[in-house]
Amino acid sequence: MTKIQGKGVCDGVAFGPICFYKRADQTVERRTIEDVKAEIERFRAARETASEQLGVLYEKALEEVGEEGSLLFQVHQMMLEDDDYCESIESIITDEKLCAEYAVSKTADTFADMFANMDDNYMKARSADVRDISRRLLNVLSGAPEGGIDSEVPVIVAADDLAPSETVQLDKSKILGFVTQGGSANSHTAILARTMGIPAVIGAGDVLTADMDGKDAVIDGSAGEVYVRPDETTSAKLHKKAQQESERKALLEKLKGQPNVTLDGQDILLYANIGSPADVDAVLANDAGGIGLFRSEFLYLESKDYPSEETLFQAYRTVAERMGGKRVVIRTLDIGADKQADYFELPHEENPAMGLRAIRICLTRRDIFITQLRALYRASAYGKVAIMFPMITSVWEVREIKKLAAEVRQALKCEGVAFNENVELGIMIETPAAAIISDLLAQEVDFFSIGTNDLTQYTLAVDRQNESLDMFCDTHHPALLRLIKMTADNAHKHGIWMGICGELGADPRLTETFLALGVDELSVSPSRILPLREKVRATDVSTVRDEIVAKI
Ligand code: PEP
Ligand code: MG
Q1: Which pLDDT does position 27 carry in this prediction?
Q2: Which of 19, 99, 362, 501 is catalytic?
Q3: What is the 3-state secondary structure (H, E, C) of 317-347?
C-alpha cells in the first residue's frame, strides 16, 4: 500500500482504479522517407480515420446539444477534405520526401497563420480550426490516444495538474475522484471538482507516479489522502467512513425545505455556484434558494469556437426555466488567466492574472460581449435572470457596461424580442480597488457579490494557482475581512444587497462573522448548501455581533 498525502479540496470517499489523464505528445520530427507512395497512403488513411472520429463526435453532440452545437464537427470534416490543405500536405511528402507528420504540421502552421492574418473575424477564427484538425491528424498518425481518460469504467483521475478546459471536457459519469500532483485550493479545477461534488485531493507531489496507472485505490477527500492498493485495515476503515458520510448526508436531507434563519431570527440567502446547465440537478437536489454565480465562461471553454447567441441563449434559458422563478445570477465571460480557449487567441502575457481577462476582454472585443448580453437579455423572459460583471476596478467600466446593456435592450425592443426590462445588474467585488470604491460603485448597480478567490489573490499578492505560496495565503487575513466589511457597509448604505460567491463563503468558521456583517447572500458549491444551512440555524448572532464587528 502507498499512502499519498495531499490537500483535500472536496470531501467524499471513493474506491476505484487510478487512471492517468493522457495528453497526446505532439513533437514532430523532420524525418525523410523512401517510399513516397506508402507515405501518401498513410496520410490518406489517417485522414479517413480522423473524419470517422469527427462523425462520431457530430452524432454525440447532435444528441446532447442539438444541431447548432454539432455543426462544427461537420465543418471540420469538410476542412479535412479541403483540396488546398491536402495538396499542400501531399506535395511536401512528394517533393521534399518528408514524413506525413512533418507535412501536416508544416501545412497547419502555414494555413493557420494565413487565416490569423485575415481581416475578417470569422476567417481569423478558422485558424484555430486548422490547428484542431491538424492536431487530430497527428494523433491518428502517431497512434496517440486523444487527450483525456482512456477507460470504460469509472476511475480516480490522476494528473500532474488539469487545466479548467481539460476538466470540463471529461465525461463526468466516468469520474470517481481527482488526484493531482500540483494544484491549489482556489484553482478553477478544484472549484469544478467541488461543483461536481467529486472527492478531490491536490498537491500530492512526487509520491503520485505514473506506474500507479490502473492500480486500485481509495480517495478520502476530507483527509486529503489517497491510498494506492489499500490494505484490508485501511479499506475497512474507509468503507466505514463512506458509510458515515452517507448517514450524515441523510441527516442533512432533513434540512431541505427549512429556512436559512439564525436562532435570533436573522435570514440569509443560500445560493449555489454552477458552471454549466447540467449542474442545475445538484442545485435542485441540495435545495438552494437560487444561483448566485453561473460561471458562464465554462460554456466557452467547452467549445471549439465562439458559441453563437442562440447556443448561449438556450443554455441560459434552460437554467432560468429549471430554477422556476428563483434568482439566477449569470456572470459574463470571465476568460483569460488560467481559463484559456485557443480560439480567443489571447496574446501571451508575462502576468496573465493581471492581464487581459474578464471584463477587459469584453470591453475591448465588444462583438463577443454584445452577443452574450443579447443572449442573457433574451433568457430574462424565461425566469429571474440577473447579470453580473467580473473583475471591475473602476466606475467608468460600469458606466460603459450599462451603456452597452442599454443599447442591447434598445436593439431587442426594436426587433420585437421579449426580455425583462428590469434585469438586475450587479458586479463582482474581487479587486481591492472595487472594494475601496464600493461607495461609488454601489450607486451604479443593483447588487455586489464578493469574489474572495480573486480578492484574496490581489489583496495578499498571492497567485491563486501557486500551491507553494499556501503559507502566505491567509484567507482570514484582517485586510480581507476589512475589505468585506467595507463592501457590506457601502452596499447597505446605498440600499443594495450584497453577497459572497468566492470559496470563502462556504467556510463555516466565518459564517458567524458574515452574519454579523449583515451579508445578505452566500453562494457556494451545491454540496455545501445544506451544511451551511445547518450552521446558520445553529447560530445566535445577537449576542456576538458588536464584538465581532469591533474586532474587524
Ligand atoms: C472569485 O474570484 O472569488 C470568483 C468567484 O470568481 P472565480 O473563482 O471564477 O475567479
Ligand atoms: Mg474571480
Answers
A1: 77
A2: 501
A3: HHHHHHCCCCEEEEECCCCECCECCHHHCCC
Residue 218, sorted as left (phi over 0), alpha (psi -120 to 50) or beta, turns out to be: beta
pLDDT at residue 112, rounded to an integer:
86
Whether the CB of 334 sits within 6 Å of ligand 1: yes
Instruction: Please state, in angstroms and rounded to a whole number, the distance separating the CA atoms of residues 290 and 490.
Output: 24
What is the secondary structure of 379-447 as a DSSP string?
HGGGSEEEEEE-S---HHHHHHHHHHHHHHHHHHHHHT----TT-EEEEEE-SHHHHHTHHHHTTT-SE
Q: How far apart are CA 372 and CA 377, in angstroms?
A: 9
Strands 216-220 and 225-228: what pairing? antiparallel
Nine-digit cell string for 388: 453580473
Query: Is 188 known to be catalytic?
Result: yes
The helix/strand/coil state of 542 is coil
The reported pTM is 0.75
Strand order in the sheet with 2-5: 2-5, 225-228, 216-220, 13-20, 155-159, 175-180, 200-202, 7-10
- Which three three-digit cell numbers place residue 489? 457597509
Kindly list the distances between the CA atom of residue 383 and the CA atoms of 292, 309, 321, 322, 552, in Å, as whole numbers in the listed order: 14, 18, 6, 9, 38
Which ligand places an atom closest to the C-alpha of 273? 1
| Helix 83-96 with 36-80: angle, nearest 10 deg | 160
> 36, 211 in Cβ contact below 8 A?
no
User: For residues 493 and 62, what is the distance between their CA atoms, to the nearest angstrom?
Assistant: 50
Please say whether the beta carbons of 155 and 174 come within 8 A.
yes
Neighbour tally for 399: CB within 10 Å: 11
CA 160 / ligand 2 centre spacing (Å): 23
pLDDT digit string (tens) for 212-253? 999 999 999 999 999 999 999 999 999 999 999 889 988 899
User: d(Cα 360, Cα 257) in Å, to the nearest integer?
Assistant: 40
State yes or no: is 501 an active-site residue: yes
Give the whole-angstrom CA distance, residue 276 versus residue 187.
Answer: 17
Maximum alpha-carbon separation in the chain: 86
The rounded distance, in Å, linking the Cα atoms of 493 and 323 is 30
What is residue 219's DSSP assignment?
E
Per-residue pLDDT of 535-548, as tens digits, reads 999 999 999 999 99
Please write the tens of the pLDDT for every residue from 471-518.
Answer: 899 999 999 999 999 999 999 999 999 999 999 999 999 999 999 999
Q: Which residue carries 449542474 as its cell?
A: 279
- Active-site choice (10, 99, 188, 473): 188
What residues are neighbours of ligand 2 (ion), with CB under 5 Å?
Answer: 430, 451, 454
